[in-house]
Amino acid sequence: MGHISLRKRTRRLVDPTHADGRGKLFNWVIISLILLNVLAVALETVDWIYAAYSAQFVLLETVSVAVFTAEYLARIWSAVEAGEPYDRPVVGRLRYATRPLLLLDLVAIAPFYITLVGGTSDLRFLRALRLMRFLRLFRLVRYSESMQAFGRAFALKRGQLVVAMTGNLILLVVASSLMYFAEHAAQPEAFPSIPGTMWWGIVTLTTVGYGDVTPVTPTGQVIGSAVAILGIGLFALPASIMASGFIQGSSYETGYCPDCGHEIDWESDVSADGPTYGVSNRVRIDITAESALDYDYHGVHGTVAEYDPDRDEYLIELDESEERLTATWKDLRTPLR
């Protein structure tokens, strides 16, 4: 057995995807420590608990920061073992340190060192720094497949989510403005300004309806009714988009198309350079985000009639309609049936 360097062993230890027994134990220790820290931050806000166990809270914080700091430095030091683009000793480590989860690790431990060196005497700022320890909870993303699924779904649907949230923001501004002009004269305290009216707009559009602020004029009630009806559909839109993202993201794990249930052979169908199909090969049209074809062709089978190597395009003769269309490898999959 070849010699494994300390740096490589460290990389395997701190890598959550490593299946080694010591790696799994390390992951569970870090997860447990993160959860314990979040619980401690919450309990510290209970005066009598903090008064009775303040020394234990300080000890837990000191030990936790020491462990998290050692883990952070170990990740930076062993980053070169991750390969490109982190294989350069200095530049690679600096680039690795700018990854979102590494930045989150740094922000989660920074408040301890800021208060330790006496970087501030403002009590309000100190309280804000202590609350930043809740960010340690987000470090669980590195170890949780479920939390990573949220990230995948958001990445897949970020464009649609931006459009939906922009529409919601526009509706909020318009609804709040109209309600302000309709109700301000009758209720100057409840609707003091357009920004102040946005509280009513958010509560109404999200269909929460606390009832603390309500329109009393006929015009305001008509506007409120319309806004409530619009909010049912438009404010629920991001949830449906995220649900679609979860379904689409799960297809990369199960190997099945989320729309038609076709089994996908990822090893042969998807690669860095794309698969190559020969004339007379059977293919299946699979519309993805990178496809240029219309979605009506999704799931349709056909045969490769011609291939243009210069343009890397295929002429596909469809089975049912005998129609011919031009496609790239990104539009095609190997049928497994």
From TrEMBL:
Q: Can you supply one Gene Ontology CC term for this chain's record? A: voltage-gated potassium channel complex
Name any one GO molecular function: voltage-gated potassium channel activity
GO BP of this protein: action potential
Q: Which Gene3D superfamilies match?
A: 1.10.287.70, Voltage-gated potassium channels. Chain C
List, for all copies, the residue spans of the domain called Ion transport. 24-248
- How does this protein sit in the membrane? Multi-pass membrane protein
Q: Which UniProt keywords apply?
A: Ion channel, Ion transport, Membrane, Potassium, Potassium channel, Potassium transport, Transmembrane, Transmembrane helix, Transport, Voltage-gated channel
Q: Which cell locations does it reside in? A: Membrane
Segments passing through the bilayer: 25-43, 49-68, 101-119, 161-182, 222-243
Q: Does the keyword Transmembrane helix apply?
A: yes
Annotated DUF8139 domain residues: 277-336
Pfam families per the record?
DUF8139, Ion_trans
PANTHER family per record: POTASSIUM VOLTAGE-GATED CHANNEL PROTEIN SHAB, VOLTAGE-GATED POTASSIUM CHANNEL
**Protein name as annotated:** Mvp-type potassium channel superfamily protein
